[in-house]
Write a structure and sequence with these properties.
Blueprint: H1 2-14, H2 17-45, H3 60-79, H4 81-101, H5 109-134, H6 142-161, H7 169-173, H8 175-187, H9 194-226
Length: 228
């Protein structure tokens, strides 16, 4: 409660009431829809499980609620993309907190820190190569090749060494990129071009996907092939 109170005070001082309500409503309805959709998942996975309370009007009522939730989320993303991205980014950061304190994967904590450090080094080198390419010292395609090799390769190595975490290693390796995306969403101004902003995000999102794919290959394919 103390932490929530301090965080609420920080949010109150950092923005207007409209901004806070947009962020809160977006996050609330996102989880409302996920919780309601979970009813269908549990009914499908455990159809005979005892239930103390059964959803009234199933499946029509929860299906309508999920559709309305999807409509509200989509319209919020369309008409308030910046605030929606900020809300999604803050929610996504909670996954790292959960992953750090969760013992479900038995992954060493130093390995999680090492993945972030490796990703930071890769981003730094990639930025240096991009700058040298911009001034004509290096070929322009070199930084793209480096991004593919470094992030996919790092994901593969971490996935093979600690396979229980699987593709999620890609998220830890690309943590700095995700922070950069969140910073861009926060600093985005209403007068700027949305198409340019989205276009600048695509290469970064592809890099995150490459790291996740590499981790998946390392944890599934390479580990299976190395077993006797």
């Amino acid at each position: 409660l103390v932490v929530q109170g301090v965080w609420a005070a920080v949010l109150t001082l950092s923005g207007s009431f409209d901004q806070l309500t947009d962020l809160a409503v977006f996050a609330f309805w996102l989880f409302y829809g996920m919780v309601t959709a979970a009813v269908f998942v549990f009914r499908w996975r455990e159809p005979d499980a005892p239930r103390s309370y059964r959803t009234w009007g199933y499946p029509i009522v929860p299906a309508l609620f999920v559709l309305v939730t999807v409509y509200l989320i989509v319209t919020t993303v369309i008409f308030a993309p910046r605030r929606s991205l900020i809300g999604l980014g803050i929610i996504a950061l909670g996954l790292y907190v959960y992953g750090w304190f969760s013992d479900a994967t038995a992954t060493p904590k130093f390995a999680l820190v090492l993945a972030i450090v490796v990703g930071f080094i890769a981003v730094s080198v990639q930025s240096l190569i991009a700058f040298l390419s911009l001034i004509g010292v290096l070929p322009a395609i070199l930084w793209q090749v480096f991004a593919i090799v470094s992030f996919f390769g790092a994901g593969t190595l971490f996935g093979r060494k600690w396979p229980l975490l699987g593709w999620k290693w890609g998220l830890w390796i690309s943590f700095m990129i995700q922070l950069w995306l969140l910073y861009n969403a926060i600093s985005f101004q209403s007068g700027e071009s949305m198409s340019y902003y989205i276009g600048s995000m695509i290469p970064q999102l592809l890099t995150v996907g490459l790291a996740c794919m590499g981790a998946l290959v390392g944890s599934r394919i390479l580990n299976n092939s190395s077993r006797p």
